[in-house]
Amino acid sequence: PPGPGGARVVCLDRDRAAIEGESAERVDGGATLDNLAYVVYTSGSTGTPKGVMVPHRGLCNVVAAKVRAYGVGPESRVLQFVALGFDVAAAEIFTALTSGARLCLGTRAELLPGPGLVRLLREEAVTTVMMPPSALAALPDEELPALACVVVGGEPCPAETVARWAPGRRFVNTYGPTEASICNTMFVCAADGSPPPIGRPIAGVRAHLLDGDMGPVPDGAPGEMYVGGVGVARGYLRRPDLTAERFVPDPFAEGARLYRTGDRVRRRPDGELEFVGRVDEQVKVRGVRVEPGEVEAVLARHPAVREGVVVAGEDAASGVPGGKRLVAYVVPRPGAECAPAGLRAFLRGQLPEPMVPRDFVFLADLPRTPNGKTDRRALPAPGADEPGEDAGYVAPRGPVEERLAGIWAGVLGRERVGVEQGFFDVGGHSLLVAGLLRRVGEAFGVEPPVERFLEAPTVSALARLVEAGRAPGPGGPRGRGGTDWRAEAALDPAIRPDRAPAADAADPAALLLTGASGFLGAFLLHELLERTGAAVHCLVRAPDAAAGLRRIRDGLAAHGLWRERHAGRVVALPGDLAAPRLGLAEGDFARLAATVDAVYHAGGLVNFVYPYPLLRATNVAGTVEVLRLASLEKRKPVHFVSTLAVFLARGSSAAERVGEDDEPGGPDGLEDGYAQSKRVAELLVAEARSRGLPACIHRPARIAGDSRSGRGNPGDLLSRLVRGCVQLGSAPDLDVLLDMAPVDSVARAVVHLSRLADSPGRDFHLMNPARLAWSELVAELGRLGHPLRVEPAERWRAALLASLAAGEENALEPLLPLLAREHGIPTVRGTPRFDCRRTLQTLSAGGIVFPPADRVLLGAYLRSLVGDGGEEARRREEIPARPAAAG
Q1: Is the pLDDT of residue 517 over 80?
Q2: Who is most buried in 437, 588, 674, 773, counting CB within 10 A?
Q3: Are strands 359-362 and 510-514 parallel, antiparallel or unpaired?
Q4: How far is CA 239 from CA 50, 232, 717, in A?
């Protein structure tokens, strides 16, 4: 209705006298809950703004929820921080006015994050603020005694921001899009060192996490957030097509609608919702779908990073039209050392290689919009060489290095490359390796093998290979690659378990488990919690114990293994297998050695592309530190999880028979760096055993999915091969047999065997005795709706390489160096026949039997891995269900 004097624009200062003369009685303007409260425009992916029509019911519901959650009342003072053109401004205004609080205004200069805004907050004794986390993080540290409630939203909130602003006041993380009336979920945060989730829906709001077919996703798995309830807007003004696309019928409530937020969210085990990234911001980097927001979340955990933003830019060096590269914009913490190589190494430890940014740009501060959000459009373009990339730069020393450095720079799209800088530390990735070596071959007539390049991927090392005039092969007393295997397997003389008293292995009070966040490790942890009463200390790569515990719990929950009753017995131990003393301080290492009564060493770096030198720190040096800990304070049993691949020497044949008392050969005869690293670790365990350490070695074969759900490890070799074949539409013609030991069976077997009195000193072979032909797996894929052409192996490999070169998505992309080798089909060739009867008899006596490797197990595994191909597959003969086996 018109204001004083019939005016439709009311100026609060000029018209103050007229306003005060108005009646204080409630005025009924005639609006209903379904009338529009406002139309607010948001940016569109096409560049055309979209007018969102929000009814009164949504705004009323949000304001009521905010007043309750923030504790706003007549004595409160709420800051009007957000510009009036944004819908959050309505939440600020009406949260204050409907509760009788004072709404505090400021000039544009006063509201810019900085000292002026702090001064405004202090002078106005503001009690409640709502702003983006990035704006809050930019405020100086000053005392604000009146500030009782801080509310953030619009961006993921870093743990550091919570730690700075939550103590002594209420700190609320909120989430909600404009199309669902500003706010849908809330979470009251504590300064526990971890980034906060977005919480739970407010009253009147329903939140559904759905997959591409609008089916609910399981807890722990990411899905698109669909919002229902009273806050759903009418749609977009005069945009019926876009309205129909984003506002969809609610399959769970007749006649209702849901808004597709485009946000990927997952539900944690405790029921809280956690933002993962944007669906519509997905980009493909070298054929892999990447959420920049997901990379940002990991980057923010680096101790030297204050703030970070990740964007996708064009990658001319990719050789693929429209190819993308990730660029990270980083604001370092004051005084912290922050270099691209260190950040890449940190991210590689937690993310797949394509998700690691190629370029890093260091800024004093991120650019801001007038509302305090990060202004991504104002981010500077990355230069060819950013500060920090030249750390340790060494110029070429001769014509060969100079020419090679020029080739590297051209491949990487850089101005210059130092001769001692690692290829992967300056933005290189696996898809560029083959092209780089090809250009080297064209320039020098010598193309070094991929394996040798990966052992030392620097210009100087490559120059030595080129100058040698040939690719060095096996030879000399040190074996392949110049590795002194005798020295590698020599255990530190200071490790003397025979000088320590024995631990109480029969009734352990505490255990140490490495690899708890891995696939087998999660099932081992579950079995240890179920079969023992001990506290389990889990070594995990994480910035702190809270983040480590969350990572462990999430890993268990993803497989349906988390039990709240076990919460008090899981101890997260932030550390690193590749670091001295497992990454622990000397005192913490000694205390752990005195606390635990047995060690389960299942951690390691599994990579069939890396040569031995790249795996040594984690798989070999890490095992040495485990043996050191097991020998300190008290002599503790060590149960080392190795692999039957230590028997797969070059030229091994399916006609061979390997018994449990047979000793593997030396590491120099093995095919790949991973098997070499496990064999060296075995030799170290054996040496510790000869010095009195009660240790045993468990050698699983191929570990398949859970026998109940079929859910497996999508990153293992067979899983990638299956998915890669489905994506390519064809499979190689292979005459091989596949063993499949369900992960839950293997975990239960390891824990059972470890608790037997006579287990120390023994080696156990864990393999499903029944094996499947590769042709059976291909046939089963066809029955599931994924028919594949079977082609000669070399023709299939050539087609796959051509597909990858064209930038097509394929799960086998990380194995490109293997595929690029002659006859490099990434699967086990004719493997020996492993005689595991003794182990299987021991397990059978304990009631543990591996389920047969039949169509039932294979079907469950493949369904989980690649899904059902469609209606045609569903009309096919159903596979009968089978009760879970005892294992």
Answers
A1: yes
A2: 674
A3: unpaired
A4: 8, 16, 48
